[in-house]
Amino acid sequence: MKQGRIVITGIGLTAPNGNTLAEFRGNLLRGVSGITTVDVRYMGRHPAGMCTFDPLKYQRKKDVRIGTRAGGISIYCAREALADSGVNLEGRDRGRVGIYLGITEHGNVETENEVYNISQFKYDTKFWTHHHNPRTVANNPAGEVSLNLGVTGPAYTIGAACAAGNMGLIHAAQMLRLGEIDFALGGGVSESPQTFGIFAGFKSQNALAAHADPTKASRPFDQARNGIVISEGGCIYTLERLEDARARGARIYGEIAGYCVNSDATDYVLPNPERQAECVRKAIAHAGLTVEDIDLVNTHATSTPQGDIQECQAIGEVFRSRSTPPHINNTKSFIGHAMGAAGALELAGNLPSFADLVVHPTINVDNLDPQCDIPGLVINQPRTAKRVDAILNNSFGMLGINSTLVVSRFRD
Known about the structure:
Elements: E1 6-14, H1 21-30, E2 35-40, E3 44-49, H2 61-66, H3 69-85, E4 97-103, H4 108-119, H5 132-136, H6 140-149, E5 155-159, H7 164-178, E6 183-190, H8 196-204, E7 230-231, E8 233-241, H9 242-247, E9 254-263, H10 273-286, E10 296-298, H11 305-319, E11 327-329, H12 332-335, H13 342-350, H14 353-356, E12 358-359, E13 383-384, E14 390-397, E15 401-408
Parallel strand pairs: 3-7, 4-5, 4-6, 10-11, 10-14
Antiparallel strand pairs: 1-8, 1-9, 2-3, 6-8, 9-15, 12-13, 14-15
Helix pairs in contact: 3-6, 7-13, 10-11
């Protein structure tokens, strides 16, 4: 890990409670939820996290009409990340720029909408849009970004369920280290609330959140938690080799220190705490660190009764040897589960802790579940840390895929 150091130099995001890193972070520290309710086709109103970014900031009306919600989110985040990094692509070889975006689902949104549309016309397929195929291919979000930016290097998506946000960054770092590209846009995006199918699926599994107050519907670790709040969003980072970032005097948010991806191979839906713990340990070792070096752990916990308990078991097992625990928080309590964007957004909300040493809390914990009561949990109020030099970010997904990413404070 001492060779090929990769650093983060720009962040662009849209979340249910913020359209810039400053707004997002501020709301995390103030305890401001971004959850509201939406009308779900065939199902009525349900809590959801919706973004309010301006799609016309970087796109024409025609492009928005032809493209997808996931593509629009991706373009907005990519453009914001580039602006934040200070990089002008006009002066670069665009064939050496890579775009790697993690996604959970894509295509079902457009298909559902088109089927519903032609149902109003007795299923006459002449009313089916001729934009359907490019809208539904799995690489659509990254492809829309490449079209918008004129990037001719590799641009594709990584399907990794809810572990995908971390995977976008991991893949970008790997491609930079391999020398396949010289500059990367990596992260994750999601358009999940645009489809009733995902609401219906979680409802059928008794895993869809319900609460009279939507801002309290996502409540990881609380005894009254009852399921997932489905959200959209995106977060894209610019990543560079350290020598390139130094050469242009870039501001550096942090360094990709280590990572691990593994699989449970035990169940379609239920996580395996033993494999999760293994993923965390291997990521720490890959970073050349020990459990004593980790200062902040962002949990994946989705507010499902069993999933939260199993992740707490995994984290407790990994860090039980420490005399003082790391600070442990959760971002989904503010924004719900942004699926493919979750890992990337949750990391972004914690990166400013390197500078201000403040750890944002998990909100909506009125009665902590004793089975989730692990040392180090930051609940309901921010906490000031003595040290934040290494952040560990967990993202786990269905079919047993696990990803853990470690980002360290940048030091020369």
